[in-house]
Amino acid sequence: MTVGNMETAALFDAGKKGRGLRASRELRAGEVVFAEPSFSAVVFDSFATQVCHSCFRHQAKLHRCAQCKFAHYCDRTCQTACWDEHKKECGAIKKIGKAPNEHVRLAARVLWRIHKDTGIASDSQLISVDQLEDHVADLPEGDLKKLQTDVHNFQQYWSHGRKQHSADYISHIFGIIKCNGFTLSDQRGLQAVGVGLFPNLCLVNHDCWPNCTVVLNHGNQSALSSALHSQRRIEVRALEKIPEGEELTVSYVDFLDLSADRQKKLKEHFHFDCTCSHCSQHIKDDLMMAAAESKPSADKVKEVTDFSKECLEKIDKSRIQGDFHEVVKLCHECLGKQENVLADTHLYRLRVLSVASEVLSYMRSFSEAAGYARKMVEGYTKLYHPNNAQLGMAIMRAGVTHWHAGQIEAGHSLICKAYAILMVTHGPNHAMTRDLESMRTQTEVELKMFKQNEQEYHTMRDAALKKPVTSSS
Ligand SMILES: [Zn+2]
Ligand SMILES: [Zn+2]
Ligand SMILES: [Zn+2]
Ligand SMILES: [Zn+2]
């Protein structure tokens, strides 16, 4: 059922995949195909006091809602912008004395909104929220139990005059959230801090090698009007030139997995069998499992692969325990064994390189971290779509690491590369793109200085690194 209109895309029957969206005209790389505010969204329980419930920015100091003492906001502007969404919730939390979990809170917000706007929040919304798929029938036993508990808690919490809903209808809403909810990250894209429902986005089908990407824009906090101030929205952006009539796709999973593993994840979380060209033709699987060019024996490759797998588990464990020296020790050992046995694009090698560069950079061993980051980026570049957002962010981190290591030429060049990718995937107004832009300018100045007087440059860098790290918000 079509209920709205969009200039760039239209609903169509995508065969086995069900509904889909396709381009109504040719789209340029980096073009915003559509932007959409959330129908409803909530901050995760674990971030309830650290992230603004209106704009989803991570903030050091938040103000608490005086009524329910649960919701937190940057300031009055964010609170005012969000009051319509929070009003009913505020009363319900006060009534039962405690906020229920994030699933129940989101389901309640969705239902309050449905009652207010009958499931259609804007003219360009193509589908009513309660017509999305729920896949409740596909849920395994354990998930079904949890769902029943949530439904029970929901019934204690939710009220709307004398209106009541059947347990089936409430389960339907929970199911919709479970398989269509989009995870929201903070303004630096570093942490998943909440979840929201975006009806049009739900119509964009998956492809492991998609032609679009989706990004959360947190709104413009320096805007004077409170409406713009915290108008968080997702943007679906074209990753490449898309001809008129072509289906629009985004990826629900990271590409860096063997096709069989991606298919397994998609089946488990989204209940479908991926038949995209990269899965059905196993494209790049060979690179992700490749042996080094020196042609080691099959036995040797198997031995090192098994060793790496075990080692990665140990690395994860030590990392969770915060034992970073152990992590570094394990990474060194593992990378040593992999040398001349596994190729630079092997998944296990890339995973170890990623952890090693991140942890060493955290421990301020920037030179060593930079070396690993560079190898990681080289491998990623051979595997990812050239405009993949994960690739862009990895290159950004590698650039910053090189910069901190005093390798200004490599640092500047990586930062420029990352900037070019994020201009497509995140757009010029996103907080991360703006960060990159200022880093690009700063590294350019430093590069000039470096070329004029290397000695002076290093003295300046060393002094800068001794200062505590500051970050803008
Ligand atoms: Zn805010
Ligand atoms: Zn409140
Ligand atoms: Zn109703
Ligand atoms: Zn696939």
From TrEMBL:
Protein name: [histone H3]-lysine(4) N-trimethyltransferase
Domain SET: 1-253
Pfam families, per the entry: SET (PF00856), zf-MYND (PF01753)
Superkingdom field: Eukaryota
Annotated Gene3D superfamilies: 1.10.220.160, 1.25.40.970, 6.10.140.2220, SET domain, Tetratricopeptide repeat domain
UniProt record, GO biological process: methylation
GO cellular component annotations of the record: nucleus
GO MF terms, alphabetically ordered: histone H3K4 trimethyltransferase activity; zinc ion binding
PROSITE patterns xref list: SET, ZF_MYND_1, ZF_MYND_2
SMART domains: SET
Record organism: Seriola lalandi dorsalis
Sorted UniProt keywords: Metal-binding, Methyltransferase, S-adenosyl-L-methionine, Transferase, Zinc, Zinc-finger
Start and end residues of each MYND-type domain: 52-90
Signal peptide location: none
Enzyme Commission identifier(s): 2.1.1.354
Keyword Signal carried by entry: no
Catalytic activity entry: L-lysyl(4)-[histone H3] + 3 S-adenosyl-L-methionine = N(6),N(6),N(6)-trimethyl-L-lysyl(4)-[histone H3] + 3 S-adenosyl-L-homocysteine + 3 H(+)
